[in-house]
Amino acid sequence: QVQVTESGGGSVQAGGSLMLSCTTAGSIFRISSMGWYRQAPGKQRELVARVIQDGITIYADSVKGRFTISRDNAKNTAFLQMNSLKPEDTAVYYCNVVLNRNYWGQGTQVTVSS
Description:
By secondary structure, this protein is mainly β. Helices cover 0% and strands 57% of the residues.
């Protein structure tokens, strides 16, 4: 079993910054990729950013230039640095870990006020 835990969410004003952390625990042999998704009320869950093992990153167009994903392979941990936050970034943010299957955390709330 693999446990995924997000932390670092909170409430900020527009233009502010937050950093989310994703930690893992359990029987982990090799993580293929780690990513962040978000889901706003009434909307589908969407990809925010993903990093694969060789360091290649993928970002949603809406966050390019503002968000940065990083990964500590030794600790099987991922981070999402979010700068210049906008009210439309308000959502529950989920960490996704891909091993033999997808694993999800419980999510962390990010609220950006105007």
